[in-house]
Design a protein that fits this description.
ApbA, binds ketopantoate, eight-stranded mixed beta sheet, N-(1-d-carboxylethyl)-l-norvaline Dehydrogenase, domain 2, 323 residues, Rossmann fold, globular, 13 helices, binds NADPH dihydro-nicotinamide-adenine-dinucleotide phosphate, alpha/beta, four-stranded mixed beta sheet
């Protein structure tokens, strides 16, 4: 049996909708601390409430709550084994912010975020620490602060970064999630899984964010919409293929078909980038669109639709930053 001394110590950076669900799951097998920002007061006073289609309604969760990583370290009796980064993937500042809680050569940095090319800055900042990359399927929202609503899917696809780095930490984290009752799959190279998910994120996220529409609303709004969505997804596919990640046209059509099938049920999805725009938050434009366009250009792949989405979403993000 695991005692409080033998349970892994986990720090969550980014106690939003996705991170809080995973921290709750992990609290069954690990000691858990959450770095909170806008939801600090409510989380400190009342904890979180999770309403999940999979795990149940009205789940009350009270992790240790701190303002920042310095405070987390000052209250910890031992180094953190894992720091889970589940803030939005906006490059530039997070490695520095988490560094007080990353013990050299010990703490594994786990990125549970959308996008591609997100790991490099962590690997460069923490060259002696394991970097674990996790693709996440978990539709969730936090409204109001402290109250998480989670839909009907929960899955992590996990691997080491870079993929040739030793596997043991990513494998151990996969097993930890499984032992907590979550769904986790280990991959020797998780990057193809990132690209497969990107088919949906690099297309739907900016399009829904720019149009303030759910995916089904975009599809129903014009006869041209389905073909344009397919063309955008095929550009993403072409870039993935140029990097050796094989995605077939059938897989692209399947991804588009999932949204088309939800039209009669009026069951549209609001991607996280749309939720961010609605809440006036900066968007993950570089991780989800900009990096893809740059990688496409490096290989000479034509991606004019995606580039247009990047320019528009980048301007929207800059405008949010000014307001
Ligand atoms: N939500 C979803 O349905 C899905 C999301 N994803 C991906 O998962 C990742 C997390 O998304 P999600 O949970 O929706 O994100 P949220 O926006 O819900 O949560 C992010 C959290 O990080 C916090 N944060 C950001 N910067 C800091 C900081 N400097 N110090 C402390 N806290 C900080 C935010 O605090 P504050 O409130 O103060 O801004 C917020 O609580 C993203 O990469 C997203 O694309 C993937 C699949 C589905
Ligand atoms: C797949 C999807 C759309 C699930 O909500 C997502 O990853 C996101 O919202 O960013």
């Amino acid at each position: 049996m695991m005692t409080s001394e033998t349970r892994p110590k986990i720090l969550l950076f980014g106690a939003g909708s996705v991170g809080t669900v995973y921290l709750w799951l992990l609290s069954r097998v690990a000691s858990t601390t959450a770095v909170c920002r806008s939801n600090y007061d409510i989380a400190k006073k009342n904890g979180f409430v999770i309403n999940s289609s999979i795990f149940g309604q009205n789940i009350e969760f009270e992790p240790d709550v701190v303002h920042d990583c310095e405070e987390a370290v000052s209250k910890a009796s031992a180094p953190f084994d894992y720091i889970i980064v589940c803030s939005k993937a906006i490059p530039g500042v997070v490695p520095q912010l988490i560094s007080p809680a990353v013990t050299l050569g010990h703490t594994a940095v786990v990125l549970v975020q959308n996008g591609v090319g997100i790991e490099k800055e962590y690997h460069e900042f923490f060259p002696e620490n394991p970097i674990i990359s996790a693709v996440v399927y978990l539709p969730a929202t936090q409204r109001p602060a402290g109250v998480i609503k989670h839909g009907e899917v929960e899955k992590l696809q996990i691997g080491s970064y870079p993929s040739f780095a030793p596997d043991q930490h990513a494998d151990a984290f996969t097993k930890l999630i499984q032992s907590a009752g979550g769904t986790a799959e280990f991959y020797e190279d998780v990057q193809p899984k990132r690209w497969f998910k990107l088919l949906v994120n690099a297309s739907w996220n900016p399009i829904c964010a720019l149009t303030l529409s759910k995916d089904t609303e975009v599809l129903s709004s014009s006869d041209e919409a389905s073909d344009v969505l397919l063309a955008v997804m095929l550009e993403i596919r072409d870039i993935a293929v140029a990097y050796g990640y094989n995605i077939t046209r059938e897989e692209v059509e399947y991804q588009l078909g999932r949204a088309q099938a939800r039209i009669p049920k009026n069951a549209g999805i609001e991607p996280s980038m749309l939720q961010d725009v609605q809440a006036g938050r900066r968007i993950e434009v570089e991780a989800i669109v900009g990096n893809v366009v740059r990688m496409g250009k490096e290989k000479g792949v034509l991606c004019v639709r995606l580039e247009m989405l990047y320019v528009l979403a980048k301007a929207l993000d800059s405008q949010i930053g000014r307001s």
